[in-house]
Amino acid sequence: MRLVYFGTSAFAVPALKALSESVVLVVSQPDRPAGRGKKLRVLPVKAAAEEVGIPVLTPERAREAAFVEHIRSLEADALVVASYGQILSEALLQSAKRGGINLHASILPKYRGAAPIHRAILEGETESGVTLIQMDKGMDTGDIIAIEKVAIGPDETTGELEAHLSLLAARMVAKWLPTIATGFFARIPQDDARATLAPKVNREDGLLKFQMSAGEAYRRFRVCTPRPGSGVETRFGFVKLLEARSAQGSGEPGEVLSVGNNGVAVAFAAGALIFLRVQLEGKHSISANAFANGHRLSPGSNLA
Fold this sequence. Notes:
With 304 residues, the chain is α/β, with parallel strands linked by helices. The chain folds into 2 domains: 3-194, Rossmann fold (3-Layer(aba) Sandwich), CATH 3.40.50; 203-294, Methionyl-tRNA Fmet Formyltransferase, Chain A, domain 2 (Roll), CATH 3.10.25. It has 8 helices and 16 strands. The strands form 3 sheets. It has a 7-stranded mixed sheet. Strands 10, 11, 12, 13, 14, 15 and 16 form a 7-stranded mixed sheet that branches. A two-stranded antiparallel sheet has the order 3-4. Helix 4 links the parallel strand 6 (78-82) and strand 7. The longest helix has 25 residues, at 158-182.
């Protein structure tokens, strides 16, 4: 098959690698400024494509007529889409023989949209998965070709679940493409009555407060790790949490319950979290134990 691959984030890299011998063009989002210096950062799918010598285009708007006509001229058998970041027009979907197929990181019709992995963890789901759909002009609304599910671990972060699902997506698309090439495969319409949306999360979603229950705080930490990041305001300034675990314990919100090589246990409104690795603004990351020692924290101290 001749494929045009649309993808941007790390989730889409394993599937690209699995299909690379059939991909004639990769389409990704334009490079974006990142970090304190706002230097342009090459996004993961573009970097992976360049590594294996696949041509890459990065249109600001994939709906533009000239771009659609260029894709049509490639005479692709299918467009494969995974975590691309733009909704493809009907004209673009019709530019390939078998249209577009999309690898979406949720059990559709739940969590349509930009942040399905984040939202599944935030809502306390115990399972997630990858859905392969035949695309239409809507946002993740196309008919379902296949679904594969996985359990969400109680400590699993968005980054960890994304890595797990990305490998599942690669296996799924490699398995199904030969069947899709024939044009003879079952498709099941989504039940729109059961649909939910998954809008992007932002920095505010990762802001923890000692007045929260430890359960809510830990869920928010898992959701926003590694991006957009999670942390809590303390009397020493904002402390970014890089690694943490839930724990038993009680005390005043912000109270240090224990300090040791296994982390620093801190009380929330109900329950506690163990801080394992932290970062103060403008500083390098350090172990929570080093942070506690540097600020002379001991059981009974309060971070609030």
